[in-house]
Amino acid sequence: MRYNRWALYGLLCLAAVMIMAPVFIMISTSLKSMDEIRNGSIFTLPTDPSFAAWSKAWFGDCTQTLGEKCGGLSSSFMTSVQIVIPALFLSVGLGAVTGYSLAVWKMKGANVMFAALLVGMFIPPQVTLYPLIIMIRELGIFGSIPGLILVHVIWGVAFTTMMFRNFFKTVPQDLLKAARIDGAGFWRLFWHVMLPLSLPILGVAMILQFTYIWNDFLLGLTFGGRSGQPMTVALNNLVGSQFGEKEYNVDMAATMLTALPTLAVYLLSGRLFVRGIAAGAVKG
Amino acid sequence: MNGVELRNVTKAYAGITVMENINLEIADGDFLVLLGPSGCGKSTLLNMIAGLEPVTGGAIDINGRDVTALEPDERDIAMVFQSYALYPTMSVRKNIGFGLKMAGMPKPEIEERVNEVAELLQITPLLDRKPSQLSGGQQQRVAIGRALVREPAVFLFDEPLSNLDAKLRADMRIELKRLHERLGRTIVYVTHDQIEAMTLATKVVVLDRGSIQQADTPENVYRRPANRFVASFVGAPTMNFVDGTLVRDGDQVFFDTGNGKLPLVDVPAEASDLVGRPMTLGARPEHLMFDDAGISARVVLAEPTGPDQYVRLAVAGAEMTARSGPEQAFKPGSDIRVVIDGARMSLFDLQNGKALLHG
Fold it and tell me: Of A179, A197, A283, which is closest to B132 when you measure between CB atoms?
């Protein structure tokens, strides 16, 4: 027993070290100066930690301007926020309503529609990229933030609908009957009874959608155009298109900055997230 | 007419008729119990009255108004479910007031009515709790409160006591009966529990396979069952059934099973018309009487239940159960003599099971 316990902790520590080592190297490197990076080992701690690289990654270097911008990530951060917030609420909100109607209201073809949504979930985005481009172009919003938001909503809604539909399917029939007798129609049943029940699922859907949309690179690159480049695309540009010496400290800081929002969301919502995943049937 | 009336109600699922031409009148203030085994259609019938399931044919009137095409909330009904079906995210107060809120009643009035009902059901201290913080019995009270607060013409109960333990069930049964006597409202109550049916009902409707077997007072359903199904479904332990013929030997009437003659005492005069016809005798355990003038029976097993004991007897080629007081000792294998109380027994047609005669 005791022996097993030690083995367990040993394995856990090993896994933690393996996962945390790159993060440690990134943070440590981002705090070093270029001289130190050139001369030292990547595992040593910075001798003179400084946030200069972080500042450069965020604000850019305005002494060597690229066009009118200084090349920092701050402006694309704002673009990402402008994309994520509406796309997040639209995809989760729509998914909740469609999932609710698929699960609760008997209508013709509901199962066919649900099957279609499932298939939609398993098709890789690359396959439908070109038809989507044409669709968005015909709508006249290709290469703009609204266009990119619409694409994210289209992609997200299949997933969120499935999550909500499966959750609402577990709500006992008697509860729905009671609500009908109390006179709650489609919207009032949704708003007063079902939505409050689904809070854990709502939380999980929000977190997963936020992560997915924030981390997206392909759709942002394709549909965002010049004005709608999200942070991930800007990060790629920053890391990949510098002249002369590679500024590892700036690259590391920029990467950390891009990953920070999703990291924060996970850390702040950790308990809610686990609760949502563990949420099974509703107790009546 | 006040109350509820079902006229030629028919129900079909995917073209298969499960209920045909159900006609039922529920008088204003009646406590009507729909009784039957699972799958007999009693819940379907209740859901059709509630408007939760559409009828395939026929019409339903509530308080003299045709409600066949109306939504559940427009029918002036309230329903209590087996699983209580309380809204888990709402407090008890909000649970009870939800229907009134949906109906657009102003807040102070809702508050007043909720408080009144809570007082009546003695759940005032629970008003601000969530359903998950309540015991089963408390949840059931809240569910009843949610129905009461609407002051409907008809209350519908769908096996409301099935999820409670035996002690609580007995208590709630008494409370429901009191509530009915106090409010005098029409109640339609679904159960598979015959004790609930016998104790609560002013009228019992026994259902089997989607059709009404008998609709009568609890006494008559027990005393004068319309057919063999009703006779076997109501009463515990179940009625004894033996096939055979009535024979007369001088003044004495016997039921000849082919393996022996069961003596019947105090047989009504009409029985003489049935002599010689093959039929089924139905005798409840209390209709078997120990009598030295009777037929010899062998004790197979005795089951003491406390106030009574039930004795399994091998008699005239059949096994029958007799009821006895707790004092007498019955040794398995010993012999005893019994007669059947012809004044209380029932006789059924051998083919269709319809009652031919009640003693």
Answer: A283
pTM, 2 dp: 0.83
Q: Is B99 on the interface with A (CB under 8 A)?
A: yes
Higher-scoring residue by pLDDT: A120, B224 = B224
DSSP letter, residue B74:
G
Could you report the per-residue pLDDT of B140-169, keeping only the tens digit for each? 999 999 999 999 999 999 999 988 898 999
Give how far A180 is from chain B: nearest CA, Å: 6
Q: Residues A214, A94: one domain?
A: yes
Q: How far is CA B303 from the centre of its chain?
A: 25
E strand or H helix that includes residue B77: strand B77-80
Residue B92 confidence class, pLDDT cut points 50, 70, 90: very high
The residues, ordered by sequence, that sit 6+ positions from A220 with a Cβ below 8 Å of its Cβ are A83, A148, A228, A229, A230, A232, A233
Asked if the structure places residue A62 within a domain, the reply is no
User: What is the predicted ipTM?
Assistant: 0.85
Domains recognised in chain B with CATH numbers:
4-226 (3.40.50.300), 240-358 (2.40.50.140)
Residue A16 belongs to domain spanning: 2-50
Q: Are residues A238 and A144 in the same domain?
A: yes
Tell whether A109 and A16 lie within a shared domain. Answer: no
CA-based nearest residue in chain A for residue B160:
A174
Give the count of Cβ contacts less than 8 A between chain A and B: 68
Distance CA B182, CA B195 (A): 21
Disruptive mutation site among A106, A176, A177, A181 for chain B (greatest number of B CBs within 10 Å): A181
Q: What is the mean pLDDT of chain A?
A: 87
pLDDT in tens, B55-65: 999 999 999 99
Query: Is pLDDT of A106 > 90?
Result: no
Q: At B26, phi and psi to the nearest 5? A: -115, 110
How far apart, in whole angstroms, are the C-alpha atoms of residue B138 and residue B134? 6
pLDDT at A276 over 90: no
Total domains in the fold of chain A: 2
- How is residue A114 written in tokens? 């649900």
From chain B, pick out residues whose CB is under 8 angstroms from the CB of A188.
102
| Test mutation, B86, B89, B151, chain A, max A CBs within 10 A | B89
Could you report the per-residue pLDDT of A45-80, keeping only the tens digit for each?
888 888 988 998 888 766 555 544 566 888 899 999
- The answer to whether residue A181 neighbours chain B at the CB level (below 8 Å) is yes
In a domain, A17, yes or no: yes
Residues A121 and A217 reside in one and the same domain: yes
Question: Do A20 and A106 fall into the same domain?
Answer: no
Do A34 and A174 have their domain in common? Answer: no
Task: State the pairing for strand pair B252-256/B318-324.
Answer: unpaired
Residue of B nearest to A282 (CA): B88
